[in-house]
C-alpha cells in the first residue's frame, strides 16, 4: 500500500517536471501549423525567395516534419531567429522545433535542456578572407579584426584557436549573417569566421566571389541538426524519425521520381514500412500510415534536398564530403525502419 502511494507520487512529480513541455505533437495538430525556427536568412539553408516563400536545406526539414504530422508541407510558420534568440524561442514554446544550423554540443544538450534529434549537416568552422590580403593560413591572422556572430560556438572556438596558437585578434561582434556580410565587405573586419557551409553560402551571394578565399584550416566539429525541448520524447521521436526517413529514403533509392510507384507497394519490406504499406510505424508515432511518404513528397529525400539547395550544381557548390551516406564513405547512417 505504502509502496503504491510512493510510486503514485513519483509519477505525478515526474509528469509535472516533464509535463511543462510535453504534448507538442498534440499542440501542432490542434494548431494545424508547425512553428519552425530558422535563421534570419542564409541562402541555401533558409531564406525567403523572391515571392517571400522560405526555401533551403534547413527549411526542407521544417516542411518534411509539417508534411509528416499534418499532411501539408506548407503548413509551417517560419520564425526567424538569430544566434542569440534561437534558444529562448525554443525553450519558451514560441517554436516547436529549431532547424537552424545549430551545433550539437554537450552544454546545449545537458545544460540548456534541449534534445538534438540527429545531424542533418556535419560541418566545421572555417575562415574567409579577401584574396588580396595574401593570407594562406589561419595561423597568419595574428592581430586581425574578425567578424563573429554572438551566441554561437564560433565565438568560443575562435578564442580557443587563437589562444592555442598564441596569437591575438580583435572581435567585431555581429548579430546576423546579413550584418556580417555587410561589415566584412565594407572592410570593418579582415576576416569572417563561421561554419564552413555558412561561409560558402555567404560567398556565393557576393558580386565577386573569386575575390575571397576560404582558408584551409577547419578548427572545430560542428554537427548541425534539428532540436526540440528536452522532456517531450514523443515529439522528439516524430522529428528524429522524419529526419531518418529522408536519410533512409536516399539509402534505399526512394526519390521524388519513383515515390508514387514505390508507395503502391514494392518488394523491399523496409521501403514498404517507410512508406506505410506494411507494418504500423505511423501509428506508433501517433501519425497516419503515410507520414513517411508525405515527408518525402515535401521536398524529396536527403540527397535531393542537398543537391537542390546547397549541392555542387548550385552557386554554393558544397560537395557531400562527410555528409555522404555511410555506404559511400560518409557519416550519414540512419537506424533501420523496423
Ligand atoms: N553552428 C554555430 C553557428 C551558427 C550560426 O549562427 N551561423 C550563422 C552564420 S552561417 C548564421 O546562421 N547566420 C544566419 C542568421 O544570422 O540568421 C552554432 O550553432 O552556434
Architecture overview:
It is a single chain. The chain is of the alpha/beta class and 338 residues long. It folds into two domains: 2-122 and 224-328, Periplasmic binding protein-like II (D-Maltodextrin-Binding Protein, domain 2, 3-Layer(aba) Sandwich), CATH 3.40.190.10; 125-220, D-Maltodextrin-Binding Protein, domain 2, CATH 3.40.190. Helix content is 40%, strand content 16%. The chain is built from 14 helices and 14 strands. It has helices spanning 2-19, 24-31, 57-70, 86-91, 106-110, 153-164, 177-185, 196-204, 233-252, 259-262, 269-275, 281-285, 291-299, 302-309; strands at 34-38, 47-48, 54-55, 76-80, 97-98, 114-116, 121-123, 125-130, 144-149, 169-174, 191-195, 212-214, 222-224, 227-229. The strands form five sheets. It has a five-stranded mixed β-sheet, sandwiched between helices. A three-stranded parallel β-sheet has the order 4-1-5. α6 links the parallel β9 and β10. The longest helix is centred in the last third of the chain and has 20 residues, at 233-252. The protein is globular, with a radius of gyration of 21 Å. The two termini are 40 Å apart. Residues 1-19 have low confidence and may be disordered. Bound molecules: glutathione. Glutathione binds at residues 39-42, 82-83, 101-103, 149, 152-154, 176-177, 194-195, 198, 222, 224.
